[in-house]
Amino acid sequence: MAEEAVLGFLEQNEEIVDSGEFAVEKGINHEEIVNVVKSLNGFGFVVAQDIKRERWQLTTEGKTYAASGSPEYQLLMAIPPEGISRVELQKKLGDSVFKIGCQQAIKNKWVEMGKTQVSRKVARVDDNVKALLIKINDGEVLNQEDIDSLKRRKLISPQIWKGYSVKKGPNYAPKRRKPATDLTRENLQSGEWKELLFKEYNFLAKGFPVEGGNLHPLLKVRRQIQMIFLQMGFEEMPTNNYVESSFWNFDALFQPQQHPARDSHDTFFLREPSTTKTLPEDYVERVKQIHESGGHGSRGYGYDWKREEANKNLLRTHTTAVSSRMLYALAKKPFEAKRYYSIDRVFRNEAVDRTHLAEFHQIEGLICDRGLSLGDLQGVLHDFFSRLGMSKLRFKPAYNPYTEPSMEIFGYHEGLKKWVEVGNSGMFRPEMLLPMGLPEDVTVIAWGLSLERPTMILYGIDNIRDLFGHKVDLSLIKSNPICRIGL
Q1: Are the CB atoms for 56 and 144 separated by under 8 Å?
Q2: What is the DSSP letter of 470?
């Protein structure tokens, strides 16, 4: 009905000057006219120009006073000619009307307020506030002074009225024909297609988003680091066993059984199966001896080494457990220099916060060869981290049970403009390597870092729980940018 009214009126007239007046004239709801004008304007049937007018409407308080009178008028009318006590007048009017009425009546010099008695100063007055509010409600225009006085008392509030002036558009027609979206067999057979109005193609419209797999940022950075290792001639270690024995995880690394890291507060031990049944007995005996009484120039730790402690199963706390297995297997063959790396998950019983999780990914690299020195380690680290985009490195002495010397690695991050800790490194101790059966002139240099930390830096993520774990937003996986190491 509204569409026919608008198009029909424009067929005989040049313009609808005001959609509000037009709606009243035709007896149609203005909102309905507005919706039709918007639709016709979108398809070019009409050209619409905005009209905005500021109107005033009564607030809830203003509506109350328009019906019952202003508080000052109510207060004056409640005072008898002989006067009334303040307490009785307050009880008669209510707290709110009494308080506002007193302020305005005193301001207007209508009443005399004594300590206990209230009396009139005038016999009768006109309630101008009520009269103004009724005029506003009826749509009458007031002068600015009256508007300002009502605004100060928060009895009125502005309301923006929106409408349109409407003229014929480039596609105007007395009646809108619904465009066809498909050409059917029936249209062709009947010849109807000649008269049909077809909907235009929108070549700028976006299609449906393609649903498919998305690479997690960790997987992207993992692949880039993996390629760096492969370019440097490393081969990957098998890291498919999350469950490891305490022997390979700790004892084989010359880590004493009293070390705090072996406590249940730091390590996840298994209930079932709680112990391992397969360990190389000759090697176990040599590890026991190096712990208890030393050897190869070492005094050992001088304690009673317990087999049952070494047999305990746990979730590996580092991928160095895999390194110890690989070096032991290497020692059983004629010696051959090797470069190994691994990138996989490890588990630690830590409190979860914005930088720590109970499970994370560890990157580890090691080189086993004759006559390697600390200088070789620093040279390899410079090569490795320069490929990650960090050409400036610093090293700080550190302690590690199975490496000596040991170094923390710091790199200068050009984006953050500061030095950040990026990993740990060292040379495996003879107490770890010689019981395996490796030649005495063979040394192993190694380093490790987490996968999460460089990924967080690259992608600007400051909470590790937003990157890995059950709280990750899937939109991060779908919309994360292509990110290259070193940029």
Answers
A1: no
A2: T
Beta strand pairing status for 84-85 and 117-120? antiparallel
State the Cα angle at 23 between 20 and 28, rounded to 5°: 145
**Sequence letter at residue 305:** W
State which H helix or E strand residue 185 sits in: helix 185-190
Asked if 344 contacts 363 with a C-beta cutoff of 8 angstroms, the reply is no
First-residue to last-residue Cα distance in the chain? 62
pTM of the predicted model as reported, rounded to 2 decimal places: 0.58
176 touches 11 (CB < 8 A)? no
Contacts of 277 (CB under 8 A, 6+ apart): 311
How many CB atoms are located within 10 Å of the residue 260 CB? 8
Per-residue pLDDT of 10-68, as tens digits, reads: 888 888 888 888 888 888 888 888 898 888 888 888 888 888 887 888 999 989 889 88
Looking at this protein, which amino acid is placed at residue 403? Answer: T
* 19-26 and 2-12 helices, crossing angle to 10°: 110
Give the whole-angstrom CA distance, residue 70 versus residue 143.
20
Mapped to the 3 state alphabet, what secondary structure does 431-459 carry?
A: HHHHHHCCCCCEEEEEEEEECHHHHHHHH
DSSP, res 55:
E
What's the pLDDT tens digit per position in 285-333? 999 999 988 888 888 888 898 999 899 999 999 999 999 999 999 999 9
